[in-house]
Design brief:
alpha+beta; 285 residues; Helicase, Ruva Protein, domain 3; 24% helix; N-terminal domain of MutM-like DNA repair proteins
Length: 285
């Protein structure tokens, strides 16, 4: 599932290309991937709510979710789920038939003399979707409620306070989006290894010093992953078609049974919160 770095890398490309452009057409090819402003995925859908006639006013991110705001105050939250992705193409060229292309927006380029942009939402497994909102308040109160602080800026003191509320294993707590928004399985493993924290430690057992070290590891891991465009394992592709290159920098994720790159000890694997967790028994006591 795309995590914060993948969504942030997508956001940056989308913002650079469509920010300030006017949407002159919105096409819905599969109705049930869209939740309208009443949270329904059936019935009539007004394409103006998908931005038709509006200028793309903002392209932001909250946790693992992409937020696109329109000039009328409405907008949409794009959740990529397991296999969702956004594509950006030259809208002046013939639109090829693309499997699982559920939504298409035609956007006038904000740059004079440039071709229009075809922006598409593609999701083979349909675990993701597009959620429409009518205002910033509607988005915050209905679609973003319950999210914890952003992982990219979490200070050690706040992380310590939030982990101190739970007896769950620290890995499970990091995967909980109400504790910390944006971290998933890949970057939890990488940050815990970097900080030298065993994934089975109880959240309450993490000291302030350890929490500060872990917060630094989380922030630095996510920053490097964002710069690399995230990690392409199976489905993640950036809007321009390029893969995320951070997979080549994984030190523990996906390397169970291989030697630790820090000490040479064989990496071990266990299940936490129904997810595989890779760790070094020597570096992460």
């Amino acid at each position: 599932m795309p995590e914060l770095p993948e969504v942030e890398a997508i956001r940056r490309q989308v913002r650079r290309v469509v920010m300030g452009g006017r949407i002159h057409k919105a096409m819905v090819r599969r109705r049930d991937v869209v939740r309208d402003r009443s949270n329904h995925r059936k019935g009539r859908l007004f394409t103006k709510d998908l931005g038709r006639g509006q200028v793309v006013d903002s392209v932001e991110r909250r946790g693992k979710q992409l937020l696109v705001g329109f000039s009328d105050g409405g907008g949409m939250v794009v959740r990529l789920g397991m296999s969702g992705r956004i594509t950006l193409e030259d809208g002046s060229k013939r639109n090829p038939v693309v499997a699982h292309q559920h939504l298409v927006w035609m956007v006038e380029s904000p740059r004079p003399s440039q071709s229009p942009i075809r922006m598409s939402f593609i999701d083979p497994r349909r675990f993701g979707g597009v959620y429409l909102f009518g205002s910033v308040e509607d988005c915050r109160e209905r679609l973003l409620t319950g999210l914890g602080p952003e992982a990219t800026s979490i200070p050690g003191t706040r992380l310590h306070e939030r982990l101190g509320r739970t007896r769950r294993m620290v890995k499970a707590a990091l995967l909980d989006q109400s504790v910390l928004a944006g971290v998933g399985n890949i970057y939890a493993d990488e940050a815990l290894h970097s900080a030298g924290v065993h994934p089975e430690r109880a959240g309450q057992s993490i000291s302030l010093v350890e929490a500060e070290k872990l917060a630094v590891a989380i922030r630095s891991t996510l920053k490097r992953a964002i710069q690399a465009g995230g990690s392409t394992l199976r489905d993640h592709v950036l809007p321009d078609g390029s893969p995320g290159a951070f997979v080549g920098e994984h030190r523990v994720y996906g390397r169970g049974g291989k030697p630790c790159l820090a000490c040479g000890k064989e990496l071990e694997m266990l299940q936490i919160a129904s997810r595989s967790s890779i760790f070094c028994p020597r570096c992460q006591r």
